[in-house]
């Protein structure tokens, strides 16, 4: 049986954590589609042509150590505006979405472009300040020295580029359920997402 859960939203809204937890709860596979763009962005920073990097992307490239760095995040949002790069990454994501046993995909355009027929669509968001504070805490915990103001500036730059690009902009699907995590604990946000999926499964 295939069952697709599309979870979109801006950086650091909690969609990654929610997606992993929902996938684990329902024993489904999970794909963080941001890693595809990050892997291409990381290769661009090393001098590769982004289109060639997207065409030759291998599964092990998604495990590269540096993909979570702020530099790679910005590079990812730069390659993500390129229509040819997005087209290269489409088939893999669609195949993943329809795999047996169900799949959770998180990203920016899963419910709108990659898999508009997803059985469940969530749009997870939070205010830019809350998201920047969370990202700053994560980076500092990982040993990265960076100012909060710099993280907030990176978050807003990336939001603008992701939302304003012509190709597959970040936008909630009309039939997506919104979850604003600004004032929710992560466990509360996971509980909301799990109950929405549960309702859809039994209906
Ligand atoms: O989710 P993330 O922060 O790892 O994503 C990194 C960048 O990749 C983000 O700025 C936009 C892009 N992205 C995208 O355009 N479409 C997706 N489905 C996932 C990510």
Task: Describe, in plain words, how this protein is organized in 3D.
The chain is α/β, with parallel strands linked by helices and 203 residues long. It has a single domain (4-202), classed as Rossmann fold (3-Layer(aba) Sandwich), CATH 3.40.50. The protein is 53% helix and 12% strand. It contains nine helices and five strands. The chain has helices spanning 15-25, 34-45, 50-55, 70-79, 83-97, 110-114, 128-141, 148-164, 186-202, and strands at 4-8, 29-32, 103-107, 120-125, 177-180. The chain has a five-stranded parallel β-sheet, with helices on both faces. The longest helix has 17 residues, at 148-164. It starts with a strand and ends with a helix. The relative contact order is 0.22. 2'-deoxycytidine-5'-monophosphate is lined by residues 11, 33-34, 37-38, 73, 76-77, 80, 107-110, 158, 162.
Question: How do the helices and strands line up, and which of them pair or pack?
Answer:
Blueprint lengths: L3 E5 L6 H11 L3 E4 L1 H12 L4 H6 L14 H10 L3 H15 L5 E5 L2 H5 L5 E6 L2 H14 L6 H17 L12 E4 L5 H17 L1
Parallel strand pairs: 1-3, 1-4, 2-3, 4-5
Helix pairs in contact: 1-9, 2-4, 4-8, 7-8
- Residues in β-strands, percent: 5-15%
Please tell me the total number of domains: 1
**Largest sheet composition:** 5 strands, parallel
Identify every distinct bound molecule in the structure, by name, code or SMILES. Answer: 2'-deoxycytidine-5'-monophosphate
Backbone structural class? alpha/beta
